[in-house]
């Protein structure tokens, strides 16, 4: 039963602020992901929670008890925080067999041999690595080593699990498998988990909630569906699922809809965040929501139709990605039909267009 609270956490390295006044909570049993581009402060945040690094200011609490409090000079050492960790580099001890690697945290806590053996088998069983108990790390694949690292992290029953890009050293196929058993493990154990990744697909698949970070701050903290459907900034719209960000000028604005001038055309958008009449706007629309028509569309209208010209077609496997030139700029469209280069009509469904004030996009 462990809830994590982070309050006004800041970490400065000289003139640089790696984590900037961040507050959030992770509920008991929740899987929360810190998602963001390289350098946004994810590892710094995780190190602070683990006790590997002391932040400049703020507090961190587990179940209401401070484990770090800059003002009170409270800073519990890592081994007293009861936190399990797995990092990008597997960090198994190369000279120890699987059994001894997993036994290590139990030995450190003075757990007797019989109970130790039982716990080791339980933890290795969870990640389906029991048959490898007598192997050395170099006799295992990368994915297997990472599973042993996970077993070692959960074996003594930590209050929190911290995972820092644990799958990023695996090849694409293995990553997919590894994602599966991480999810299974979480469903079995329900340990409060903080997962760090720069991979949005991983975040969407695994998480109960996602905190998207940029420049040391959390830009939005929400469920995967909410992030995808209701991004609060152009950065989120583009980072979670990729979006076209089209430059326009607000022509008419109401509470939930607006008309925006884009090149020579007026686009209706249904979801609208913040822009005012006359101001510059960014229209976010996902490439997979853009529809392409050869010649004149026979649609019933109501959509936003704009003429364009296909500049480039990339084969993606199941779909094609098109770069389409319009009077307002280039629009990306991802569709399954094959079109030849040349004139097309683009349809940007109003319900799939979100408009932001352009200053928010800076
Ligand atoms: N020990 C350190 N000394 C100086 N700068 C650091 C240190 N650790 C991290 N930083 C800086 O803080 C920022 C955040 O880093 P980090 O938390 O590792 O990002 P992420 O894990 O999101 O890629 C980066 O700009 C990085 O260069
Ligand atoms: Mg990192």
UniProtKB/TrEMBL annotation:
UniProt keyword annotations, A-Z:
ATP-binding, Nucleotide-binding, Transport
Q: Which residues form the ABC transporter domain?
A: 4-240
The terms under GO molecular function for this entry are: ATP binding
Q: Which InterPro entries is this protein grouped with?
A: AAA+_ATPase, ABC_SmlMolc_Importer, ABC_transporter-like_ATP-bd, ABC_transporter-like_CS, Mo/tungstate-bd_C_term_dom, P-loop_NTPase, Transp-assoc_OB_typ2
Q: Which Pfam families match?
A: ABC_tran, TOBE_2
Decide whether keyword Nucleotide-binding is in the record.
Answer: yes
Statement: the UniProt record of this protein carries the keyword Transport: yes
Q: Classify the source by domain of life.
A: Bacteria
Q: What is this protein called?
A: ABC transporter ATP-binding protein
Species source reads Steroidobacter flavus
């Amino acid at each position: 039963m462990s809830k994590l609270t982070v309050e006004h956490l800041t970490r400065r390295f000289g003139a640089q602020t790696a984590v900037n006044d961040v507050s959030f909570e992770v509920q008991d049993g929740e899987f929360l992901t810190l998602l963001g581009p390289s350098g946004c402060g994810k590892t710094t945040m995780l190190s602070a929670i683990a006790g590997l690094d002391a932040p400049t200011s703020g507090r961190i609490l587990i179940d209401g008890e401070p484990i770090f409090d800059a003002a009170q000079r409270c800073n519990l050492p890592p081994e007293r925080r009861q936190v399990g960790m797995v990092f990008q580099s597997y960090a198994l001890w190369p000279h120890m067999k699987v059994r001894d690697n997993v036994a290590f945290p139990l030995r450190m806590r003075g757990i007797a041999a019989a109970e130790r053996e039982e716990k080791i088998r339980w933890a290795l069983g969870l990640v389906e690595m029991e048959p490898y108990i007598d192997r050395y790390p170099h006799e295992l694949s990368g994915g297997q080593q990472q599973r042993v690292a996970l077993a070692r992290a959960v074996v003594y029953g930590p209050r929190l699990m911290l995972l820092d890009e644990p799958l990023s050293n695996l090849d694409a196929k293995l990553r997919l498998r590894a994602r599966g058993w991480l999810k299974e493990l979480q469903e079995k154990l329900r340990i409060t988990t903080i997962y760090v990744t720069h991979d949005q697909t991983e975040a969407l698949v695994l998480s109960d909630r996602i905190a998207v970070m940029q420049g040391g701050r959390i830009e939005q903290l929400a469920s995967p569906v909410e992030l995808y459907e209701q991004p609060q900034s152009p950065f989120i719209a583009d980072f979670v699922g990729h979006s076209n960000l089209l430059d326009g000028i607000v022509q008419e604005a109401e509470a939930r809809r607006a008309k925006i001038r884009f090149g020579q055309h007026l686009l209706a958008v249904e979801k609208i965040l913040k822009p005012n009449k006359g101001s510059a706007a960014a229209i976010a629309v996902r490439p997979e929501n853009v529809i392409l028509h050869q010649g004149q569309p026979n649609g019933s209208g109501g959509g936003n139709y704009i003429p364009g010209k296909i500049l480039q077609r990339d084969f993606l496997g199941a779909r094609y990605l098109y770069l389409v030139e319009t009077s307002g700029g280039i629009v990306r469209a991802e569709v399954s039909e094959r079109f030849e280069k040349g004139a097309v009509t683009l349809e940007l469904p109003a319900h799939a267009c979100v408009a932001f004030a352009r200053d928010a996009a800076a």
